[in-house]
């Protein structure tokens, strides 16, 4: 076996240029796979971050049915017990309470429907990035109960600027009576997310509770975890713990199924790309091995004549396929690492582009993982060896006389 | 039909028909022949007379359409592919017109290739290689690659590889065709000497007058049949 392994390695370097070209072709396919996978992971992380860090959080707790009806009477049951329990949860990094209701916002110039969101400014900063997105004015300051923060697009529609007055009108819980309050614009934010920039208005939690007549109750608890995988996995016990007949605890993957689907589709697209690339690689391997084989027909004939068995002959070609795979893997891993590393430093600017309801807010950086340098190279090796079986069997079946006759 | 003690090759009613684009071509048309141990025989004839086909069949490189081939007491015409492979490895040495050697192996590695297939141990291989290199006049060439040798030297290595495993038969297909006359003469004289010394049977397929002159038996083929069979003293 060692004799033919040594022979295979030497044979593969006989035509260095061809080996390098074939190895590079296969290697580029592998590098493309590594890069695509790194990019898909980076894109997934970016989209999740864009979706969860802006406002949503990695998960939320609501009263059952609130998310579909936005009925203001559907406040979270056993709020106090849940809050106390969440404070004790080791997996929970931060949480914040919110009140949400549809409302009408009116300025002297115009009016618009908005989602009125009551927030606790101190804890909200850990969950959303409203404070960081403020482009004019400031985040909630001490004592200003009538402060309102709106998005840049909404300010444009209402033709208002910092310090101007607006009126919020909403229907109270239970009675349905209209509640109206005047606010002064203390901050204008710009997320570059259409729905947030034109459709949301943030006021203090206590003021929102007062307007809606829901006392100290809330509609939503937004969560952030120490381990981001909990937000991705709706089957994690945490979600069962806080869900039940009355409340519903949902991870972002449940809250934004379209994002989850998009990530799954992206992963699937990587597999499809992999299959296509591997198909091309397979044809490249067959072509290279057959070219090499046909160039050496007489030599193969001589080897068979002097006593090399059919099995040994096939094994030699099989080893050559393995040696080619090994060279290709080295080229592919190095190329994949270099290209991905360069893009990791520069990033790809997709900011402002919306995909599946999520707007990219950060530069897109590919993510390198050890798996990419194990799984894909292993796949290339296995595929090369499987593909190498065809020329190997061909070489094994070749009669020595026929091989020598055909080479003349 | 079985061979006698001194018979190395026995063929009986040997026939080989090829299909060439669907048309049957009879390359060998019923050859009955016996070659004895230690002979230095040349098979001659014009192109298309069936020399190479006959050589391929008696060496187990090709199978006959009909008839029998006995070699060293074994009926090789009925052996399976793997049996033939083992038989060739252990009983037959080959020398071809050119490209005999594996270009990525050194002279020593080429010579010991068959012994490696036979499972001969390293020490014995090395001893035999050194001995044979001296016999073929290539002392000091063990580590060279075939590409660094002249045509004559490459053929000497091919001879060394053919005889090092001590086969019963050496089959040489136009071994001097690519050599100049002086080198050809030297190679043939060396082979003749080895034949005398070791008693290994040599069968040539050739057009070369130098080989015909040195052969002790000259078999002429014409249209796939034996046209003449002449033995010289």
What does this molecule look like?
The complex is a heterodimer of chains A (408) and B (233). Chain A is α+β, with helices and mostly antiparallel strands and 408 residues long. Chain A folds into 2 domains: 2-51 and 260-407, no CATH class; 59-227, no CATH class. Helices cover 56% and strands 19% of the residues of chain A. Chain A has 17 helices and 12 strands. A 6-stranded mixed beta barrel of chain A has the order 2-3-8-5-7-6, surrounded by 4 helices. A two-stranded antiparallel sheet of chain A has the order 11-12. In chain A, a hairpin with a 6-residue loop joins strand 6 and strand 7. The longest helix of chain A has 41 residues, at 16-56. The two termini of chain A are 30 Å apart. In chain A, 44% of the residues are buried. Chain B is an alpha/beta fold. Chain B has a single domain, classed as 3-Layer(aba) Sandwich (Rossmann fold). Chain B contains 7 helices and 10 strands. Chain B has helices at residues 51-58, 81-91, 107-118, 122-135, 151-164, 181-198, 209-214, and strands spanning 7-20, 23-36, 40-44, 66-71, 74-75, 92-95, 169-173, 201-206, 217-222, 225-231. A 6-stranded mixed sheet of chain B has the order 6-7-8-3-9-10, with helices on both faces. In chain B, strands 2-1-4-5 form a 4-stranded antiparallel sheet. In chain B, strand 1 (7-20) and strand 2 (23-36) form a beta hairpin. In chain B, helix 3 (107-118) packs parallel to helix 5 (151-164) and helix 4 (122-135) packs across helix 5 (151-164). Chain B is globular, with a radius of gyration of 17 Å. The relative contact order of chain B is 0.19. The model of chain B has no long low-confidence stretch (mean pLDDT 88). The A-B interface holds A 3, 7, 10-11, 14, 298-299, 302-312, 399-401, 404 and B 56, 59, 61-62, 81-82, 85-86, 88-90, 93-94, 96, 99-100, 102-105, 113-114, 116-118, 161.
């Amino acid at each position: 076996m060692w004799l033919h392994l040594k022979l295979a390695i030497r044979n593969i370097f006989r035509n260095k240029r061809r080996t390098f070209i074939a190895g590079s072709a296969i290697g580029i396919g592998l590098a493309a796979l590594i890069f695509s996978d790194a990019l898909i992971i980076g894109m997934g992380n970016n989209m999740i971050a864009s979706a969860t860090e802006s406002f949503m959080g990695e998960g939320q707790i609501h009263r059952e049915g609130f998310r579909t009806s936005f009925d203001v009477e559907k406040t979270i049951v056993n709020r106090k017990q849940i809050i106390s329990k969440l404070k004790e949860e080791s997996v929970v990094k931060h949480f914040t309470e919110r009140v949400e209701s549809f409302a009408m916002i009116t300025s002297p110039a115009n009016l618009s429907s908005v989602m009125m969101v009551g927030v606790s400014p101190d804890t909200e900063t850990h969950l959303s990035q409203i404070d960081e997105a403020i482009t004019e004015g400031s985040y909630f300051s001490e004592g200003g109960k009538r402060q309102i923060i709106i998005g840049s697009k909404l300010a444009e529609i209402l033709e208002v600027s910092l310090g101007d007055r607006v009126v919020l009108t909403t229907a109270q819980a239970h009675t349905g009576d209209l509640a109206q309050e005047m606010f002064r614009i203390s901050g204008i934010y710009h997320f570059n997310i259409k729905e947030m920039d034109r459709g949301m208005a943030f006021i203090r939690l206590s003021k929102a509770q007062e307007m809606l007549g829901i006392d100290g109750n809330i509609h939503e608890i937004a969560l952030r975890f120490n381990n981001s995988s909990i937000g991705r996995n709706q089957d994690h016990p945490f979600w069962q713990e806080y869900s039940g007949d009355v409340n519903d605890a949902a991870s972002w993957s449940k809250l934004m199924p379209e994002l989850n689907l998009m990530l799954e589709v992206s992963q699937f697209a990587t597999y499809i790309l992999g299959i296509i690339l591997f198909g091309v690689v397979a044809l490249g391997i067959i072509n290279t091995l057959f070219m090499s084989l046909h160039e050496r027909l007489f030599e193969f004939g001589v080897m068979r004549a002097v006593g090399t068995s059919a099995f040994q002959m096939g094994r030699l070609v099989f080893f050559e396929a393995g040696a080619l795979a090994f060279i290709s893997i080295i080229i592919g891993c190095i190329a994949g690492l270099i290209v991905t590393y360069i893009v990791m430093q520069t990033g790809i600017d997709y900011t402002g582009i919306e995909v599946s309801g999520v707007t990219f807010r950060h530069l897109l950086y590919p993510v390198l993982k050890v798996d990419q340098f194990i799984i894909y190279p292993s796949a290339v090796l296995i595929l090369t060896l499987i593909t190498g079986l065809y020329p190997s069997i061909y070489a094994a079946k070749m009669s020595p006389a026929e091989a020598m006759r055909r080479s003349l | 039909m079985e061979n006698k003690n001194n018979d190395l090759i026995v063929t009986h009613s040997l026939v080989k028909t090829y299909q060439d684009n669907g048309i049957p071509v009879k390359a060998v048309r019923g050859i009955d022949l016996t070659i004895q141990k230690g002979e230095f025989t040349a098979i001659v004839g014009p192109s298309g007379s069936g020399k190479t086909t006959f050589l391929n069949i008696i060496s187990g490189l090709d199978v006959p359409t009909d008839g029998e081939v006995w070699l060293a007491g074994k009926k090789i015409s009925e052996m399976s592919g793997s049996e033939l492979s083992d038989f060739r490895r252990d009983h037959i040495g080959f020398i071809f017109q050119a490209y005999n050697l594996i270009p990525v192996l050194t002279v020593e590695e080429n010579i010991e290739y068959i012994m490696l297939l036979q499972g001969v141990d390293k020490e014995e291989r090395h001893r035999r290689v050194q001995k044979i290199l001296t016999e073929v006049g290539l002392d000091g060439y063990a580590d060279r690659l075939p590409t660094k040798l002249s045509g004559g030297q490459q053929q000497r290595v091919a001879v060394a590889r053919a005889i090092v495993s001590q086969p019963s038969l050496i089959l040489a297909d136009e071994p001097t065709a690519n050599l100049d006359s002086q080198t050809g003469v030297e190679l043939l004289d060396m082979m003749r000497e080895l034949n005398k010394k070791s008693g290994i049977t040599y069968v040539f397929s050739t057009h070369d007058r130098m080989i015909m002159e040195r052969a002790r038996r000259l078999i002429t083929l014409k249209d796939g049949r034996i046209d003449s069979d002449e033995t010289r003293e």
